[in-house]
Protein 1
Amino acid sequence: MPPMQANRSDPLDCRLVLYAKTPRGRQQRNQRSPDKVSRASSSLKAAAREREPWLIVASPQLQAPSATQLVNLHARRMQIELWHFGI
């Protein structure tokens, strides 16, 4: 996507990256009984969350990394934060 400005009152130059993961053929099965389909709300929410595309806002100075590289950096950062804060 082309560089743009975010926030009308105090414009901030940014680069937007839209990334949709390829589906991996998730099997909606229960862990206790693999022959049954999982209907737990947490499982359904997790499945819906993984289908949504990511919209990442990056600094315009980061023109060198490709969209895939930015997504990988963001995913690594989120793993570190989850590990550090114990979420």
Note: The mean pLDDT is 80.
Protein 2
Amino acid sequence: MTSDILEQSSFRDPSGFLFWRDGTLYRQINQLYQNNYQLLFDSGLYNELVDRELLVPHDEVEIEPPEPNAAYRIISTEHTSTRTRMIFGMISFSLLFFFSSIVLKSIS
């Protein structure tokens, strides 16, 4: 049985949240954010930001979500030996999702 620890810094984000499992930081992306998440890739924005090193790249992983009824995807940043880099990267990723959703809403 796994024990998830929700990251307190992301509790107000309706599009998902950060959580720790077995020493690794993950982000659950909720179904609510599915269209915006897909648009991030379909528009080319994800690759553009990663190429410019403005966004930490991530991988979609196949693990049991902490909240399966709300989950769309689980992602994790590249594995590093420094916990601080992972925290910073995932928080940056969360902020980017938040601000990109505002921009995407304003142009749609």
Note: The beta strands are 4-6, 16-21, 24-30, 58-60, 71-77.
